[in-house]
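Example S7 (structure tokens).
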């Protein structure tokens, strides 16, 4: 089964800071590192490192060729990434604070230059039953979802970063939602914050879909119409949380695409994202499957 990730590719400029800069404040950073990133690229790399037959579609400018090299090194097929002469690649300005938390400013660049012609050509290369993984950092998302659904592909949506555009998408075409509590609250338009309740409401709202709700240190919940699986989080010392969610998504979908039981896919996703948090950067922090299987992680009791 092939897995297509149609998503963003970013150059991440990561600034190590004591605290996030405040309104009106100027601060110095301790370091600047340049990483490959973008939710789409990170999820493709996680999928490939987890063992999925992974294809990435998207767009970069001439400045982003190293992003392709890094994806190829991880085993991602990149022939469906357009290299555009007239725009620069997407980028992200990331502050990484002393606790390992981040805040991010995005510049869309080539990620916002996807054409309908590209969408049609890409989707035509896949078959019914193949998977398509989407996030919210590229244009033409609704069109991609419609075409993939028409083709019989399984549509996975990670509605991140959340904005008003998400509610305009054909959400009833989604087979798997992978989202966090804040995204769940916004999709449901509720002030409810309890993970269990949010998971139940999402199942009610999208009865044909599987819901995977991540709850930070409280772990994650898998829910479909007939059952729920609760996965604990692993406690690790955070260096940089960037791409932890992308690692979780990639590992979970790779497991499902390989026919693993959902329990195993959830467990591997939790382990892989915990390892990613202990390392700097986005894509470079994502571990390979062998390491995830062998790593000794303490479980939160
Ligand atoms: O999810 C992390 C990613 O969000 C970063 O790599 C950055 O590029 C932004 O897209």
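Recovered sequence:
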């Amino acid at each position: 089964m092939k897995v297509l990730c149609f998503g963003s590719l970013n150059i991440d400029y990561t600034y190590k800071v004591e605290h996030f800069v405040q309104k009106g404040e100027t601060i110095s950073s301790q370091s600047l590192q340049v990483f490959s990133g973008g939710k789409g690229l990170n999820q493709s790399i996680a999928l490939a490192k987890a063992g999925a037959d992974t294809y990435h579609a998207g767009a970069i400018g001439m400045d982003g060729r190293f992003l392709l090299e890094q994806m190829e090194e991880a085993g991602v097929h990149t022939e469906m990434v357009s290299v555009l002469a007239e725009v620069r690649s997407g980028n992200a300005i990331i502050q990484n604070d002393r606790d390992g938390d981040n805040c991010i400013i995005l510049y869309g660049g080539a990620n916002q230059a996807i054409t309908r012609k590209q969408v049609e050509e890409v989707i035509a290369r896949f078959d019914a039953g193949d998977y398509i993984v989407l996030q919210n950092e590229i244009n033409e998302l609704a069109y991609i979802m419609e075409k993939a659904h028409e083709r019989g592909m399984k549509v996975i949506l990670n509605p991140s970063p959340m904005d008003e555009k998400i509610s305009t998408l054909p959400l009833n075409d989604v087979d798997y939602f992978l989202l966090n509590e804040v995204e769940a609250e916004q999709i449901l338009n509720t002030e409810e914050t309890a993970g269990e309740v949010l998971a139940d409401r999402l199942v009610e709202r999208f009865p044909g879909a599987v819901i995977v709700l991540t709850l930070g240190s409280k772990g994650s919940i898998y829910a479909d119409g007939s059952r729920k699986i609760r996965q604990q989080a692993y406690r690790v010392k955070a260096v940089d949380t960037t791409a932890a969610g992308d690692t979780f998504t990639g590992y979970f979908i790779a497991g499902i695409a390989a026919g693993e039981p959902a329990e195993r896919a959830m467990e591997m996703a939790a382990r892989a994202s915990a390892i990613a948090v202990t390392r700097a950067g986005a894509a470079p922090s994502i571990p390979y499957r062998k390491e995830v299987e062998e790593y000794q992680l303490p479980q939160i009791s």
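Notes on this example. The first strand starts at residue 2 and ends at 6.
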